[in-house]
Write a structure and sequence with these properties.
Helix content: over 70%
Shape: globular
Structural class: mainly alpha
Strand content: under 5%
Distance between the termini: 36 Å
Number of helices: 10
Order of helices and strands: HHHHHHHHHH
Number of strands: 0
Length: 185
C-alpha cells in the first residue's frame, strides 16, 4: 500500500497538517471546519475532499503518519534480531511523538483523543505481531497474544499520558520498561 506520493500531494498534505496543528493550538477540534483548515493551508476545498472524506478522516491520516514515522525510526534504531529492544525503542518513539504533539490534543475532548490514539491500533498490532512471529518462530498463538497485550498496554499508557491524567512521558516509559523486563525475562 506504500506507493510513491507525488511532490505536489506531499506539499498539500504537509500544508494541511500544519494548518490543522496550528488551529488546534487555539480551538477545539469540533469547532474547526474543513474550510478553516483549507483556508489556513491555502488549499482548495475540492483538493481536500479529493484526498479525505472529512476532517475526521484527515485527523486519522495525521495520526497514522505519526505512527508510521515511529515504526520507521524504531526499525532504523533497534537491532532487528532483538525483540525486547525493538519494542522498547518503538514505545519510546511512540510516546515521544505523542508527547511532542500533546499541545494539539489539549483542545480535543476525551472521545476524540481516544479515537485518535485508537486509530492506529491495527497498525501497531500488526507491526508488533510481525516482530513477535519472527522472534517466536511463527508461533501464531504466542505472537498474537503478546502483540495484543502490548498494543493495549501502549494505548492505555499513551491515552493517560496525552491527557495528563496518569503519568508523564518519563513515568510512562518507566512503566513500559518494567513491563517489558518482566515479559522478556
Amino acid at each position: 500500500m506504500e506507493k510513491k506520493m507525488d511532490l505536489r500531494v506531499k506539499k498539500t498534505y504537509l500544508a494541511l497538517t500544519r494548518s490543522l496543528k496550528e488551529l488546534l493550538k487555539h480551538k477545539n477540534f469540533y469547532d474547526i471546519t474543513v474550510n478553516e483548515i483549507c483556508d489556513n493551508a491555502m488549499v482548495g476545498r475540492g483538493t481536500f475532499y479529493k484526498h479525505f472524506n472529512d476532517k475526521y478522516d484527515f485527523l486519522t491520516y495525521v495520526v497514522s503518519e505519526i505512527v508510521n514515522e515511529c515504526m520507521s525510526e524504531a526499525s532504523e534504531t533497534a537491532h532487528s534480531d532483538n525483540l525486547h529492544e525493538y519494542v522498547k525503542v518503538f514505545f519510546d518513539k511512540f510516546i515521544d511523538a505523542f508527547e511532542q504533539n500533546k499541545d494539539y490534543f489539549k483542545n480535543m475532548d476525551s472521545y476524540i483523543v481516544n479515537g485518535v490514539v485508537f486509530t492506529p491500533i491495527t497498525v501497531i498490532y500488526n507491526e508488533l505481531n510481525n516482530h513477535f512471529r519472527e522472534f517466536y518462530d511463527k508461533n501464531d498463538k504466542i505472537s498474537s497474544f503478546m502483540a495484543q497485550y502490548l498494543t493495549i498496554a501502549m494505548v492505555i499508557v499513551i491515552v493517560g499520558t496525552v491527557k495528563g491524567k496518569t503519568q508523564n512521558a518519563d513515568e510512562a516509559k518507566e512503566s513500559m520498561y518494567f513491563l517489558l523486563e518482566k515479559l522478556f525475562a
